[in-house]
Amino acid sequence: MSTYRLSTQQQPQRSFEIRSLDEVRPMAWLRQGLEDFKAEPLWSTVYGAAVAGLGGLFAYLASGADAFFLVPFLFSGFLVVTPMLSLGLMAKAKLRETGRAHDAGALRRLLAMNRSSTAMMGIFLVLVFVNWIMVSNLVYGGVFHQVTTGIERVQPLPVMFTESLPFLLIYGGIAIALAAFVFRIVAFSIPMMLDQKVDAFNAAFASWKAVGENRKPMSLWASIIAALCTLGFLTFFVGLVFVIPWLGYASWHAYRDTMEANQDS
């Protein structure tokens, strides 16, 4: 167990304890997330459908703009902004712990408590998402020397990887590095800002430290998230209706299991 102390002038200076997690601890978060889903099936399904619909809208707009070649890259880029889109799910999970899951006023106050910090994190993730699409386009065009314009030319990323080793190495390497960077920043920062009055920078640094100190369980957690979201994409976003709320709830329990706020003098 270690401690992350907030870099502020506030006295007493607050700190967060970071627990050491068991390697298979993410499986418990999945069970807890599933319990939350079962407790709020209608609300969860509607929320998941809204997020899945947004992902489908991205794909539709890309096809409408005669930019089918972007569709495979939208799948991976969508994962970048999904944590912010799950903010309401995390808030619901927190309220359920205190028996106020159906208190709409409490939900609004909770989401507004740290509005400026969460907005800053949201802007950061949107910028990452936009730049990721641009980089994907550049890498694709640079390796294949073409821009596909018809839906018949759209192929899943694994198929593209088998067609070009340079594309696999370049695109895959950039994707893994970016995914690891973003995951370390957002894994705990978003639920942390929902739980405590803390700025986006301190939340990001705390998340970075917590993930780094629990590499094995957090690597498993990242793999689970990627696998479940991939299954959601393979069902043409329908599976995300269930996956998004499940992972959103589980992400709150991951934070609660890993970090705990205290007061130091």
Topology:
Blueprint: E1 2-5, E2 14-18, H1 26-39, H2 41-64, H3 71-85, H4 87-97, H5 104-112, H6 115-144, H7 157-163, H8 165-195, H9 200-213, H10 215-234, H11 240-258, E3 259-263
Antiparallel strand pairs: 1-2, 2-3
Helix pairs in contact: 1-11, 2-3, 2-11, 3-6, 3-8, 4-5, 4-8, 4-11, 6-8, 7-8, 8-9, 8-11, 10-11
Number of strands: 3
Structural class of the helices, strands and pairings? Answer: mainly alpha
If strands are numbered along the chain, what order do they take across the biggest sheet?
1-2-3
Cα end-to-end separation:
20 Å
Low-pLDDT ranges: none
**Main β-sheet description:** 3 strands, antiparallel
Q: Strand fraction band?
A: 5-15%
Mean pLDDT across residues: 84
Topology pattern, helix = H, strand = E? EEHHHHHHHHHHHE
Give the number of domains. Answer: 1
**Helix run count:** 11
- Given the C-alpha coordinates, what overall shape results? globular
Structure explained in plain terms:
The chain has helices spanning 26-39, 41-64, 71-85, 87-97, 104-112, 115-144, 157-163, 165-195, 200-213, 215-234, 240-258, and strands at 2-5, 14-18, 259-263. By secondary structure, the chain is mostly helical. The protein has one domain (39-258). It has a three-stranded antiparallel beta sheet with strand order 1-2-3. Strand 1 (2-5) and strand 2 form a beta hairpin. Helix 3 runs antiparallel to helix 6, helix 4 packs across helix 11 (240-258) and helix 6 (115-144) packs antiparallel against helix 8 (165-195). It starts with a strand and ends with a strand.
